[in-house]
Hints:
Helix content of chain A is about 45%, strand content about 15%. Chain A has helices at about 5-10, 15-30, 30-55, 60-65, 75-80, 90-105, 125-135, 200-210, 220-225, and strands at about 115-120, 120-125, 145-150, 160-165, 165-175, 175-185. The longest helix of chain A is centred in the N-terminal third of the chain and has 26 residues, at about 30-55. Chain A has a four-stranded antiparallel β-sheet with strand order 3-4-5-6, sandwiched between helices. With about 160 residues, chain B is mainly alpha-helical. Helix content of chain B is about 70%, strand content about 0%. Chain B starts with a helix and ends with a helix. At the A-B interface, helix 1, helix 3 and helix 4 of A face helix 1, helix 2, helix 3, helix 4 and helix 5 of B.
Amino acid sequence: MIDDDKFFAWLDGELEPVEAAEMEAAVAADPKLARLAEEHRALAAKLKQTFDPIASVPVPDLLQATLRPSADVVDFVAAKRGRPMRALPQWTTIAATLVVGIFLGTMVPQLSGEPVAVQDGKLYAASSLDQALDTQLASAPQGNVRIGLTFRDGSGKICRSFSAPAGTGLACRSGNAWRLKGLFAAREDQGSQYRMAGTDPDLAALVDSTMVGEPLDAAAEKAELERNWR
Amino acid sequence: MDQPSSFGDQLAALLPRLRRFAHALSWNSTDADDLTQATIERALRSSGQWQHGTRLDSWCYRIMRNLWIDTARASARKAAREAPEEDGVRVSEDPREAMDAAVDLKRIMVAMAQLPDEQREVVALILIEGFGYREVSEMLGLPIGTVSSRLVRGRTALLAMVGEQ
């Protein structure tokens, strides 16, 4: 019986010439080994065939944008670990308020019913946005709203960041509703592409200033969903 | 002396390969692109730590792998367990849609997602990304024998799942 590690090292071209020649002779003399070598060569070829196209298709603009010199990249999870919380600039909230009109205008045709409702002068998620915040996990996007991070704010409320074709935002639990803390419209040149949370400095700043502790992992997120985000 | 822009250019050139690695690590296409993005961001912020004369690709792959372990692995594992039979509703750009939809290719992806993480990363780095055993051993900080035995177990399990046809 030959050594498995050595057989595969030979297959991967990792053996020194003398050892490789020995293994080559052993394989040639043993039809079972020769078949195994063929099966594994075919497997390796299939792996390449499966994953290589990912490296050949154009990289999405959102990823390319990360490398643009002007990109204001904020990794809020890492940033929070590394430095003290910074204050939420007043203009963030003001800007958020200003973009609501644009956000609503562009978002409505894509969703059934308006995604934002105003009650007592406060903004709440409605219809499909409300539903997405209630029921979706970050790992399982559905429809045209994607959930980003789920975490707790200073008062212990669950907050969730989200993105939709028209923009991104942050909502925190308020009773049985989701009160919107911010909405940020997508830039015009982004078309119907999603903004990713990490490339959106406005949302990152808001998340950064709202989050206490670490974002929930997938298991904790699911547990909170089952407890109805209490 | 390299300018910051040339570091960015080099990263840009690596982006397709990093993305391929991310998709091999993570079944979920959205997670994979988020991981790629986080890797680029981390690499940009840590560019001062990269030593000239060493391989930038290995350095970036290591960043990606560590980020994957730190933050994305829990959700990737979950996504793998709940791997959809069909694509369902996709809201992100999925490069796999541009691929041949041949059944055995899909089986390969499903099989990869079912491998234990420590086997999947070694299979991806060596059989897909084309690194040598020693390079992977240095990248992951593991003895070369460990890399080799994880690779044997991973590819043997893959073959059993995919069959030889």
